[in-house]
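Suppose you are handed only two things: the residues of a chain and a line of SMILES describing guanosine-5'-triphosphate. What would the bound structure be? This form records exactly that question and the answer produced for it, so the two can be stored side by side and reused later without any lookup.

QUESTION INPUTS
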Amino acid sequence: MNRTEFTLSDVHWLMDLLQTIEVGIVVLDGENRVRSWNGFMENHSGIRADEAQGADLFQLFPDLPREWLERKLHTVRLLNTRTFSVWEQRPYLFRFRNRRPITGTEAYMFQNITFFPLTDQRGAVEGVCLLVYDVTDMASSRRQLEKSNAQLKRLSQTDGLTGLLNRSTWESFLQTEFERHFRYGSEAALVMLDIDHFKPINDTYGHMVGDEVIRQVTSLIKFNLRQPDIAGRYGGEEFAIILPETDLEGAECFAERIRSVIEHQPLKCLDQTIEVTASLGIAPWSLAYQDAEQWLGAADQALYAAKRQGRNQIVVAPLSE
Ligand SMILES: Nc1nc2c(ncn2[C@@H]2O[C@H](COP(=O)(O)OP(=O)(O)OP(=O)(O)O)[C@@H](O)[C@H]2O)c(=O)[nH]1
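ANSWER OUTPUT
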C-alpha cells in the first residue's frame, strides 16, 4: 500500500480518534462558519456537532473577543502560517467551566490554542483549524506556586506578631532611603520608639499579655502612618520608622501624636487593661551621616537619651552639619 493511501477503515479510525481526543478541534471556513466540531468541543460547550455545523462562530459564542480573534484568523489566512494563544496572555478563548477534580478551585478551563491554515491541493487557504488544549492543571499549579512564593516572600519580610517589616527588611529599606537622600538631599527623618518599662508587664501579666500590648501599640503606630512611611519592628518592644519627605517639625508632630495616643489610650489586653507609655528618638536627615548606620545610631542615641531623661518623651538627635 502506498503511504498516502488510506483504506476506509483507516479513515473511520482517524475520525474516531479526532472525535475522542482530549483536545478541542474546530475548523472554520472563510466566513468563520463552523465546518468541524469534535467531541471535546461538544462535551465542554454543550453544543452538539450538528448544531454547530454551518453556524457562525461569533453567534454561537457572543462573548468571544471578536476583534482579537478576527485579527488572529486574518493573519493565519493572509500569511498562510500558524499562530498561537497562550494562557498566560489570555487565560481562555472559549469560556468552558473547569470540571477537573484536581484543579476544581479554578472556575474556568485554561486554554492554549494553536491556529493553523487548512489549504487545498494548490496551497490556497480554505479554512482555519483551531486546536484547543486544556492546560488547567498546569496553569493552576503554576498560579498556586506563584501565590505560595509571594506568600513566602511576604512572611520572610514581615514580623509574625505585628505584621510590620522585620528588622532586616526594614534595614534594607533604610539603606535604599539613605542612598536616595544622599543623592537628592530631600528631607527625611528617622524615628525610634520603645515601650517603657515593658519587662514588668511581662513579669506581672505574662508573655501573652505582653504580646498583646506590642500588637496594640503597633496598631496605634500604623493608624498614624502616612502611605510613604516605612515602619518596622526593630526589636522586642522597639519600633523604627522612616518618614520620607518629612522635615523636623513634621517628624516631631508625628512623634508627639504617637507618644500622646499611647499615653492616653488604656490598652485592653486579654482580660487586663494596661496603661503604657513610650519613649521616642528622632534623627532628621543630614548630609553629615556617611552611612545608614550613622543615621540609625543617631536616632538610637536620641531614644536612649529620652529613656535616661525619664521616659514618655521625645528627644531629637543634635543636628549634624
Ligand atoms: N511578650 C513579649 N515580650 C518581649 C518580646 N520581645 C522582647 N520582650 C521582652 O521585652 C522586655 C524588654 O525589657 P527591657 O529591655 O529591660 O526594657 P523595659 O523593661 O521596657 O525598660 P525600658 O525600655 O528601659 O523602659 C524583656 O523582658 C523581653 O523579654 C515579645 O515579642 N513579646
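WHAT STANDS OUT: The chain has two domains: 8-143, 167-316. The pocket of guanosine-5'-triphosphate is lined by residues 161, 194-199, 202, 207, 210-211, 214, 236-237, 307, 311 (CB under 6 Å).
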